[in-house]
Amino acid sequence: MKYLALGDSYTIGESVPPAGSWPHQLARLLSNEKISVVPKVIATTGWRTDNLANAIGIAQLKSEYDLVSLLIGVNNQYQGRSVDEFSIGFEELLKTSIGLARGNRKNVFVVSIPDYGYSPFGEKRKETISAAIDQFNYTAKKIAEKYGVLFIDITPVSREGLIHPELIATDGLHPSEKMYARWASQMATLLKRPR
Questions:
Q1: Could you tell me if 152 and 187 are in contact, meaning their C-beta atoms sit under 8 angstroms apart?
Q2: Beta-carbon count within 10 A of 118 CB
Q3: If one looks up domain 2-191 in CATH, what number appears?
Q4: Would you kindly state where each structural domain of the chain is located, as residue ranges?
């Protein structure tokens, strides 16, 4: 089973080993005796929607994936880009994701943007960051719904980072393997349900 994970630092698992990132943890949860899920990750720390779109173009991917995930937007927000600009780029990426999943929207899922306001790095600006992340996630969810694509909201888990420090990586910003495990478990449960 071919799985393509598209995104940014949250998708590659900045500050954790590759095997600890959520796409790899999810692949292990979805694998069984009959199905082996092999993840391909196209993501880099700092990427916005336009950076990801460029990378997908360069990679010349084929429409051959059984599962495609999309988690992008935190760097649009962090770099002060508008929600309107994000909306345009995100919708194009979602259409591309559906195309890469052989045109089957049921084989695509969108992951909400985590809230880095609930990390030591973002704590002082928590209210401002959270309000902005909520706007971006509202936009992403509406676009996912427009295309009939599953939207998985992991943001509430990301907001446990200050009360459960073990959920934050040693860099004080990104999630730890334990938080990624929580996300992967939530995703696996939802993906196994009939859609």
A1: yes
A2: 24
A3: 3.40.50.1110
A4: 2-191
Q: What distance in Å separates the CA atoms of residue 20 and residue 28, rounded to the nearest whole number?
A: 11
106-122: pLDDT as tens digits: 999 999 999 999 999 99
Mean of per-residue pLDDT scores for the chain: 97
Q: Which residues of 16-48 are buried (b: 16+ CB within 10 A; e: fewer)?
A: beeebbbbbbbbebbeeeeeebebebbbbeebb
The structure's pTM equals: 0.97
- Return the closest-CA partner of residue 96 out of 85, 110, 83, 111: 110
pLDDT per residue as tens digits for the range 59-105: 999 999 999 999 999 999 999 999 999 999 999 999 999 999 999 99
Encoding tokens for residue 194? 């009939």
Residue with tokens 């859609």: 195
Calpha distance 21→64 (Å, rounded): 23
